[in-house]
Amino acid sequence: MSVPLPRRAVLRGAVLLGATTLTQAGAGGARAAATRVDQPTIANCATWGARPPSSPVSVVQNRPNKIIIHHTAFPNTSDYSLAQAYRNSRDIQNLHMDSNGWLDSGQHFTNSRGGYLTEGRHGSLYGLLHGQSMVQGAHCVGQNSQAIGIENDGIYLDVQPPQALWDSLVWFCAFTCQQYGIAPTEIYGHRDFNSTQCPGLLHDRLPELRRTVAARLG
Ligand SMILES: [Zn+2]
After folding, report:
1. Does the N terminus or the C terminus of the chain have fewer Cβ atoms within 10 A?
2. Which domains, ranges and CATH numbers included, belong to the chain?
3. 205-214 pLDDT, tens per residue?
4. pTM
């Protein structure tokens, strides 16, 4: 499978963000174009070897108004590799299509314990990069046409996620808020809307996540 140099891209982003901080400090807090959040590397469906959807994905011609955080409840793997992130994306898609009977992955994006981001449902990345529409998901009843859903690999009922997962979640949320004009206060957990324990301890950290994302947005 082709791998789009994620490490180099991540480093490139980190360098730009570092430069942003310097610019902000040097400009005395003045707003500048340099405050924009750089795009994190997100492997698209073709890159991780997704199956085609079983029927056409619906496009919603509106911007989403929130982000919803999930955990997969899969066992916590100690394999932090890119290969594992891709494998996890395929496992989720197979589960959602073969067991749940859905047309594709239910979530829009997936985050691995090693901090690698992948596209979930086909078309999600196109929507995010253009910032004007979204594909209808299947991740949270009542919110699938207005909320971007991200699955974080693992189960966090009594353990915290790895730092790499947290860092990529922050970056993803900041970029998504920027692209769609979503306020950082509009980041929620699955259990805010449905009867579920998802996303475990990540729900307790939503205030921290909102604050950190707000800081990244400047
Ligand atoms: Zn969930």
Report:
1. N
2. 20-217 (3.40.80.10)
3. 999 999 999 9
4. 0.85
